[in-house]
């Protein structure tokens, strides 16, 4: 979901971006790597942190891994050859289980004989999804979207065909890991990092804050130009993720506003509290739009998409948009503003519980 706000945030690095295989130092011992993605959102930011092992060996911690494909592996090979100062990777930290973050984690861990660090919830979800032939696609997902009003046969056929969607980008997940937990403090090199759990976007996302550096690795929880995807999917069809997401970013106000935020997409920025408020305002507007639409007539998630997404969407974006539309409808339902009724056609539509108030 687009949400541009460049003028309200500061970008200390300006327009500078790391090229393929390049790393830019953004803080002492913190380097920025950027990998491509085959989607409309065409990149992911990954981070290198100077580290020291328990036995005194110097090296690096990698935060997030990129998707598993030959292009990303080749880019990592350039990083290994030119950006690590001849030092090994000592651990791999993954903020959450989504493919662009988890994809090559197992490859990295095996290559350097090191441990994956991740929340238990996201490790388990990634393990299940990578071993499933229907995760994030297949017949069940298509039936779920159809029950919420998606009728385009081509779109539904494409969803059915995505039987190996997650595993195609995350072919394997390490069989063992080190658990990250909310509030945990971990020493990475010369600095202490504080793990902050977030919900609504992934099962148990972990952001990392180093107060001594004035740096927050925000992962996908706070992005500078777009809003984080918050979706309901077929695996948890009655979920209510939007309030969880808004509560999670509100907790991040404990991090100073002057902090340099390192997001997974977009450029590093300063203005965390400003961005959090923008995201709250954005979702408040979208909830108001959704409720207004439901007051006009009962709305399915597919019916609501044009009111929330005012641009053409490809299949990848449509699946996200369906999930986001449903997340907003479920948030209204939990507030008591709408109720869901299933029609004779099998489609769930959300009916306003009170008429619109007019002057």
Automatic annotation (TrEMBL):
* Record-annotated Metallo-beta-lactamase domain positions: 43-265
Under Pfam families, the record lists: B_lactamase-like_C, Lactamase_B
Q: Which InterPro entries match?
A: B_lactamase-like_C (IPR048933), Metallo-B-lactamas (IPR001279), RibonucZ/Hydroxyglut_hydro (IPR036866), Sec-metab_biosynth-thioest (IPR050662), WH-like_DNA-bd_sf (IPR036388)
Q: Write down what this protein is called.
A: MBL fold metallo-hydrolase
Give the species this sequence originates from.
Ideonella lacteola
